[in-house]
Amino acid sequence: MRRCVKCKGESVINLKSTNAAFCQEHFIEYFLRQVARAIKKYKMLAEGQQVLVAVSGGKDSMALWDALLSLGYRADGLHVDLGIGEYSEGSRLICERFAANRGARLYVLSLMDTYGSNMQEIVRRTRRVSCSVCGTVKRYLMNLVVQQKGYRVVATGHNLDDETAALLGNLFGWQEGYLARQYPHLPSTHARLPARVKPLVRLGEMETELYCRLKGIEFLADDCPLARGATSLAYKELINSLEEKMPGTKQRFLFGFWDRGRRSFIDTPVELKGCSLCGQPTTADTCLFCRLMQKAGIDPLTQPQVQEM
């Protein structure tokens, strides 16, 4: 194992992509510096700004929440309890314990408490791809909490691996709209919609997991049961094999696209109007959330039950 490039002490990680090794102290310093660098480069947050962090209990969102608090941001958490048995029970407990230990604010929204159904049941009834349904429901509910509590920015734990896999998938399918919109900072396009930021885009899954372990941050190591077979996993496997042979591939691919390639794709502005049922911004007469919930036999106008920890 190489020695730490900062202090020549025993290293805990060797990053081939940057040809650098770090000890525990200097890796944590490096991690926070990468988060701060992403925030500054992509103009994600103002100094000390209040931000709502989407927390699942996994390593990425927990590392992000801790990093933002460590950097001095007023970072509150929002956890959507999907009601998927022991997986969701463990995820929720991790978020609650972190909030209690750090003295941070946490909002919890339970699907079972609000709608009387869990995500597995909603997916089964709608007969749609599970990740698509879950993403739609969570984004919608997050927007409601944002409006109720007055946040203007939402941060998610998407990391370097997530973004390179998404980019590869969008290129394979020539999803020009998605390619135009794939960026670490998406400003608000409507008074009811928050800006969305991804401060972990300079760090991969290996780094976020090590950060959690070194700082003693509890996280759920299990993958979501509904994500099994997701195409993103195949794209990650492919890009990881390239990274192993050619270190730095992920950074060159993703940052090169954002710096040069993305400008080749045009994001055509669309007119947002109020959903005919719930009034939330949408491009259709009835928003996708309302259509999905109706198909699942659930009243989409049910008011979410949000607990503040």
Automatic annotation (TrEMBL):
SUPFAM superfamilies: Adenine nucleotide alpha hydrolases-like. Zn(2+) 2 binds at C275, C278, C287, C290. One of its GO terms (cellular component) is cytosolic tRNA wobble base thiouridylase complex. Coiled coil: none annotated. InterPro entries: Rossmann-like_a/b/a_fold, TilS/TtcA_N, tRNA_thiolation_TtcA_Ctu1, TtuA-like_LIM_N. Keywords: ATP-binding, Metal-binding, Nucleotide-binding, Transferase, Zinc. GO terms for biological process: tRNA wobble position uridine thiolation. One of its GO terms (molecular function) is transferase activity. Residues 3-28 form the 2-thiouridine synthetase TtuA-like N-terminal LIM domain. ATP binds at A54, V55, S56, D60, V80, G157, D162. Zn(2+) 1 binds at C4, C7, C23, H26. Residues 50-223 form the tRNA(Ile)-lysidine/2-thiocytidine synthase N-terminal domain. PANTHER family: ATPASES OF THE PP SUPERFAMILY-RELATED, TRNA-5-METHYLURIDINE(54) 2-SULFURTRANSFERASE. This is PP-loop domain protein. It comes from Desulfofundulus kuznetsovii (strain DSM 6115 / VKM B-1805 / 17) (Desulfotomaculum kuznetsovii). The lineage of its organism: Bacteria, Bacillati, Bacillota, Clostridia, Eubacteriales.
